[in-house]
Specification:
271 residues; mainly alpha; 59% helix
Amino acid sequence: MPDPAPGSDAGPALAPDLGAEAGARPGPEAGPVPVRVVAGWAAAGCVLVGTGAVTVAVAAGPVSLSSGYVSEAGITGNAFASTYRMGVFALAAALLVLAAALPAALRLAAGLLAAGAAGTALSGAVTCSAGCPLPPFEATTPADLVHAGASIAAAGATVLAMLVVGFLRPATAALRRVARMAGVVALPVAGVIALGLLTVGRGGLVGGLERVLLVICAGWGLSTALLLTRHRHDLPAAVRPGATGADRPGVTGDPEQAGRDERVAGSRTPV
């Protein structure tokens, strides 16, 4: 066959781009790790370190694991007082980092966690006297009142943050489920502790319930932090921010529908 004449449009046939015709799209690219994921891992680590340090200090301290106030492990002069305070400061850091890791739609819960972090740090910085006495049954010092007030405020703010995530603000199903499970247990426990402080004072009832409440708060914080470490790429294409109509089954390019989908996607956490 003769060669095509110079300047003619004839040339070798190009193979069709089957990938383009089939509508193939590349999978999600492995970009840099989001700051929220890093914050989630940091919060989880702080919860583990803080809980471990406080548990060691309480176990080796002047009170048993089931009675007396947890704060008694941090009284000046105890062998593991510094370990206790280190654990409390680690838990304060966990609350603060967890607040930073929450998405913008949960800013109310983040604010409560930040307040809880401040109260926790203050309770670690200001230790109580022997026995951590509280009114109305015992004589107290100003330091006792500051320590107790900061501790109560920190626990209350954390419980309220659970309820906000679980019931009042938009969050993913996993975050809501964990927060609701923790909140519905923590709220009555906190109420019984408050009632016990006013009616019976220091003893096995209040001390035991205090430990239950702290375990619930630590468990919720750890679970929430681990949920926040999951990448946004785990979201289905239908709710991933920036997805096109072709990525969403049943969406045919309706601008109003696309806008609603974008708002939903924008409110999702990276869970």
